[in-house]
Amino acid sequence: MFCTNCGKPLAAGVKFCPECGTQQLAPVMAPSPIVNAPPVAAQPAVVAVPPPVVPPVATATAPAQSAIPVAVVAKSGPNKIALWGTIGALGLAAVGGAGYLGWSNKTAADEAAQKTASEDMQRKVSEETARRVAAEKAADAAEIKAAQASLDQAIAAAEARARSGK
Amino acid sequence: MRRPTQPVAVDAATNVVPHNTASGGYDIRRKNPDGSQVVISKQPLPDGTTRVSGFKQTEDARTGTSTRTYADGRTVIKGRDFERRTVPSGLGFVSHQNGLREATLPDGRPAFRDQFAAVRDQDGRQRQVIERTRYAHWAQGRPAFEAQPVVRHYDVGHIHGAPVAQYRPSRFSSDTYRGFASRFAAPVLVAGAATAAWVAFGNPTTTYEDPVALIGDMQITSGFEEGYAQALPIATDTPYVNPDAGDVRNQMTAMQQQVSSAVKSNATLTQQLGGVDIQATSTQVQQAVGSAVPVQISEDVRLQVRKQVRLAVALHQSGQALSLNDVLAGGYAKVYLFQTAQPVNVPDLSAGGECFLNTGDLVAFAKLPAADAQAAEMKVVASAANSCRPEEHVEVRLTDIQEMLNGFSERVEDNMKRVSTCAASGRC
After folding, report:
1. Could you give the CA distance from residue B206 to residue B291 in angstroms, rounded to a whole number?
2. CA dihedral defined by B143, B149, B150, B152, rounded to 10 degrees?
3. What is the 3-state secondary structure (H, E, C) of chain A?
4. Chain B within 8 Å of A128 (Cβ-Cβ)?
5. Average pLDDT for chain A
6. Residue B226 belongs to what H/E stretch?
7. A139 — contact with chain B (CB < 8 Å)?
8. For residues B18 and A163, what is the distance between their CA atoms, to the nearest angstrom?
9. CB contact (8 A) between residue B314 and residue A158
10. pLDDT tens digits, residue range B314-339?
């Protein structure tokens, strides 16, 4: 099950969400009727009840919960309170599922953002290293060129001295 | 596994001492009951190979000397005011603290000897020089005696107070130099020994039109030829054998076996040594003693040596010495190649421990020396098989670097004489 407020997955029987502290409502924590419920197949007519309340997202993410109200409705039949309770529970489940989806989407987005930032950092570091190595190489090449020029000058000076006989 | 940073005791007399470098090298050191010490040194090299060397060191308190006998037959004796290095051929090179040097043949006779002398210049002024008299040189694995002793004079320079000889060339007749200022009248063919097996040029040349190019290549080949002749004697009639080197090798083998089995049977020791690969050493010692392979010389090196030959020829014509100070002050120290003139053992800054630079090996400054430095960090550019490897950084004393400059100038002089003699025939 999931927190009704923040959508965080919760262990069964938890009264308060450890994430946001919200008290968890009873319907969400009341799967016990299922235990003694007769097989769903025995009440095929009720299976169709109330499709508009269950958003497709909720069924997609939490199929186990979507079965709860079906069982409850099947047992209570025309009991309006139970029906409204079921509808409420479905609504809560839908909200919880949507919340969870939002939370998990947010987490995935955060992770993606972190990964991108890390890749950016790595790229920047390697670019910086490459720039530094290139700068060092260029400086080294310039030094070598200057040293070669100095050697050429020294040779020219020594040859000129030698020619002049000094 | 992490490597230890502190010595690890294998037994009461034996330690494994990691080198203080990132390369992962180490020494195995054992103290013998007689006070001597045997050291096996394993040095991972920049080219991915590993050098394993070993020596026995004995101290003589009476004479104040410390003697190292290496597994390949070299010895290095350090005294209070001298150092003597003997190569496997038995040739010995001595450098005295007062700046004088000498070399001795295996039988003890002098190959050359320095002394202080006074000479009178053309202007009548007297000056002190170091006079070197050469009686023999080493060729084809045996001494070749000069027809007459060859005398050369060196200026007395100083490097941080230490006297040092700076070769001042004796000028040839002016006609001689004319031959080096222009191209040969006809290409000169070089074959056989001159394109020596101990050097491999990237772009081998058999005919030369430029005398400086020919002398440049001769500088390189004759240097390595001399180094090989010193390290690996060819003559078999009276080969010199260092009697102690065999003992050192035997001790090294025994020591490695003992250390290997101790490490294998002792879990604590194995854990302490971590990533130290003791097992690998035993098979590598013989390789370290090694066989000769041609030294690879790049075109860049060749061209640089030719430039330096041009400088040396011009200085020779003016009768001028080239000092280390000249090179540093001239702004070209960064590109100057120094050719090892006499074998020298140097601290190996890359792999820890030490290695040898042999005659002919080429080194360059890795960092220009500070004003108050006694030694410089050099990078090996090209070297023979049993020398410090190319790209290794080593520490060389400035006085030894000056001796390299002297050796290069003298070798240029010798090669100028050779070329003057042989070029006319069209073959060198």
Report:
1. 27
2. 120
3. CECCCCCCECCCCCCECCCCCCECCHHHHCCHHHHHCCCHHHCHHHHHCCHHHCCHHHHHHCHHHHHHHHHHHHHHCCCHHHHHHHHHHHHHHHHHHHHHHHHHHHHHHHHHHHHHHHHHHHHHHHHHHHHHHHHHHHHHHHHHHHHHHHHHHHHHHHHHHHHHCC
4. no
5. 66
6. helix B211-231
7. no
8. 57
9. yes
10. 999 999 999 999 999 999 999 999 99
Distance CA B19, CA B245 (A): 24
Phi and psi at residue B291, in whole multiples of 5°?
-115, 160
CB contact, 8 Å: A141 with chain B?
A: no
**Encoding tokens for residue B287?**
């390789």
Which pair of tokens denotes residue B278? 């003791």
For residues A1 and A93, what is the distance between their CA atoms, to the nearest angstrom? 9
- Counting beta carbons within 10 angstroms of the beta carbon of residue B336, is it exposed (0 to 12), middle (13 to 18) or buried (19 or more)? buried
CB B300 within 8 A of CB B220: no
Tokens of A85: 């309770």
Distance CA A50, CA A66 (A): 11
Tokens standing for residue A14:
């938890």
Contact B212, A155 (CB under 8 A): no
Residue carrying structure tokens 């060749």: B302
d(CA B177, CA A139): 38
| Closest A-chain CA to B180 | A159
- Report helix angle A80-164 to B299-318, nearest 10: 30
What residues of A are in contact with residue B331 (Cβ under 8 Å)?
A: 146-147, 150
Confidence of residue B150 (pLDDT cuts 50, 70, 90): very high
Cα dihedral A144→A150→A154→A160 (10° resolution):
130
Whether residue B309 contacts residue B412, with contact meaning beta carbons closer than 8 Å, is answered with yes
Instruction: Report the relative pairing of strands B362-365 and B338-339 from DSSP bridges.
Output: antiparallel
Q: Does residue B142 carry a pLDDT above 90?
A: no
Mean pLDDT of chain B: 87
Burial-class residue B425 by CB neighbours within 10 Å (0-12, 13-18, 19+).
exposed
The sign one gets for the Cα dihedral B375, B381, B387, B388 is positive
Judging by beta carbons within 10 Å of its beta carbon (0-12, 13-18, 19+), is residue B34 exposed, middle or buried? exposed
The pLDDT-based confidence of B96 (bands split at 50, 70, 90) is: very high
Residue A65's pLDDT band, with cuts at 50, 70 and 90, is very low
Tokens 């390299």 belong to residue: B404
Q: Are strands B295-297 and B199-201 parallel, antiparallel or unpaired?
A: parallel
pTM for this entry: 0.74
Planar angle of CA B212, B218, B223, nearest 5 degrees: 135
